[in-house]
Amino acid sequence: MLAVELAGDAVKARHGSMVAYTGQMTFKKLTGGGDGLRGMVARRLTGEKMTVMEVKGQGTCYFADQATEINLVRLDGRALYVEADNLLCTEASLHTGTSFTGLNGMSSGNGLFTTKVEGHGWAAVTSNGPAVVLRVGKDMPLRVDPGAYVAHTGDLHRSLKSGAGWTTVIGEGGGEAVQIEFTGEGLVYVQPSEKTTLGGDV
Amino acid sequence: MAFTRINGKMVEALVAPGQQLFSQRGAMLAYTGDVRFTPSITGGQGGVMSMIGRRVANEDTPLMTVEGEGRVMFGHGGHHVHVVDLTGDTLFVESDRLLAFDGTLRQSTVFLGSQGGVMGMVRGQVSGQGLFTTRLEGHGSAAVLAHGGVLELPITPGQPVHVDPQAYVGHRGEVRNKLSTAIGWREMIGRGSGEAFQLELSGQGTVYVQASEEKL
Question: Pfam families recorded for this chain (chain B) (predicted)?
Answer without folding.
Answer: AIM24
